[in-house]
Amino acid sequence: MTMPNMHYADLKDSYLFYNIAQKTKKYLAENQGTHLYRMGIGDVSLPLCGEVIKALHKAVDDQACAENFHGYMPECGAPFLRETIAKHYAKRGINLDSDEVFVSSGASDELSDILDLFERENSALVIEPAYPAYVDANVMAGRKIIHLPSGSENGFLPEPSEKAKADILYICSPNNPTGAVFDRVKLQKWVDFANENGSVILFDAAYEAFIEDETLPRSIFELEGAKTCAIEICSLSKTAGFTGTRLGYTVIPKTLERKNMNFNSMWIRNRTTKTNGVSYIIQRGGEAVFSEEGQKQIKKNIEFYKENAKILMKALDNTGTWYCGGKNAPYIWMKCPKNMGSWEFFDLLLRSVQVVGTPGKGFGSCGEGYFRFSTFSSREDTVEAAKRLEQLLSTLK
Ligand code: PLP
User: Ligand 1 centre from 142 Cα, in Å?
Assistant: First the structure.
């Protein structure tokens, strides 16, 4: 008999977004015609910028004529895009060869595909609260997971310790869901820890473009020693609105080796076996993100979301509510009032002011008592949601 991967039976059902959808559906059925202010979504609301659209159109036209037509693309990414991304890193003082950059269809795909490079016996450290895919992808592979809780006492940015020893270390900065960002000193400690223990860091930099504080690292490769212990996974989803267009990139330094095995060479071997590359058209669209004009246009969109963040943060400041994130990240992580549980606060927000957010408990048990707002909604809805949130929080003081 065929044996399925029995590790799937170990997966916990992901109730988070299902429960949110069920609760909001029920509320709308009972209160027909009510508008909900959806501050929970992790998807962007602004369209792709003009430079990207222009490049996509041109690439479509290329595919219409024999001289410019592209068939299969190189599995690890088009040279034009790999070079463009390497030059983008160089502007920030990080020197990469273009063949250390791999083009992907997005960070989600990559975060689980990359696990092919590691033995199943390896353990994986997940700092919680965390983006749920880290845990699930490792459960599917049957790996031992070490959960490292974090809390407000360390700003949701824990330091490495004996308890954090694992073979694969997930670090997400700026963080989803907490919006917290590692500074250089704290991130250097993780890099040193990984090098000392022979671990590999999977650095999820999906939100690096939201960092405005120049002193904070946007790439792990800004830190000394990272090229011997880290893989960086990036995405154009939130940086440039590619959530539905799909494009990301991953950096694997050629100096990253364990047991005489080179991770860069292994990934080339993996990609050339398991993919036939990302669409030519989409890669041309991605290239336009890194042009001078493209960078100006995506920054304008990011500014828009940051303004949303300011509006929500003001409501929290005005009511003396504890929160982190919002400044260098598109997420705001607040402490629920009156020691409420995160689902209790969800119900209260929905039923009394029609605002929908994401209960912290859905990101790991130490997220209980916290609540996540995203800043990707429309301005109109954000302004109204902030007003309603402030009114509600004031009555709970
Ligand atoms: N990593 C984090 C922390 C995320 O929050 C997300 C998406 O929300 C992803 C990765 C996935 O991004 P992509 O759209 O590139 O698959």
Answer: 22
Model confidence pTM above 0.90: yes
Q: Which domains does the chain have, with CATH numbers?
A: 12-41+294-395 (3.90.1150.10), 50-291 (3.40.640.10)
Instruction: Verify whether ligand 1 is closer than 6 Å to residue 177 (CB atom).
Output: no
Q: Which two tokens stand for residue 272?
A: 């050339």
Pairing relation of β-strands 355-356 and 37-38? Answer: parallel
Q: Select from 184, 187, 88, 167 the least CA-distant residue to 126.
A: 167
Instruction: Collapse the DSSP code of 133 into the 3-class scheme (helix H, G, I; strand E, B; otherwise coil) and give the result.
Output: helix
Q: Is the pLDDT of residue 387 over 90?
A: yes
Residues constituting the chain: 397
Phi and psi, residue 19, nearest 5°: -60, -40
User: Does 105 sit in the ligand 1 pocket, CB within 6 Å?
Assistant: no
β-pairing, 123-128 vs 37-38, is unpaired
If you compute the radius of gyration of the chain from its CA atoms, what whole number of angstroms results? Answer: 21
Closest by CA position to 152, among listed 343, 392, 376, 339: 339
**Which residues are CB-contacts of 336 (< 8 A; sequence separation ≥ 6)?**
342, 344, 345, 360, 369, 370, 371
Taking residue 108's Cβ as centre, other Cβ atoms within 10 Å add up to: 18
In this structure, is the dihedral angle defined by the CA atoms of residues 333, 339, 340 and 342, taken in order, positive or negative?
A: positive
d(CA 141, CA 316): 41
Instruction: Tell me the per-residue pLDDT of 278-327, one tens digit each, with 9 for 90 and over.
Output: 999 999 999 999 999 999 999 999 999 999 999 999 999 999 999 999 99
Tokens coding 276? 């036939």
Which residues does residue 333 pair with via DSSP β-bridges, in sequence order?
324, 372
Q: How far is the CA of 206 from the centre of ligand 1 (A)?
A: 6
Atom of ligand 1 nearest to the CA of 176: 3
Torsion of CA 152, 153, 155, 161, to 10 degrees: -120
Give the separation between CA 40 and CA 369, rounded to whole angstroms.
Answer: 16
108 CA closest ligand 1 atom index: 16
Atom of ligand 1 nearest to the CA of 106: 15
Q: Cα 252–258–260 angle (5° rounding)?
A: 105
CA distance 264 to 1: 37
Dihedral of the CA atoms 293, 298, 304, 308 (nearest 10)?
A: -160
Cα atoms in the 13 Å half-sphere on the side-chain side of 163: 8
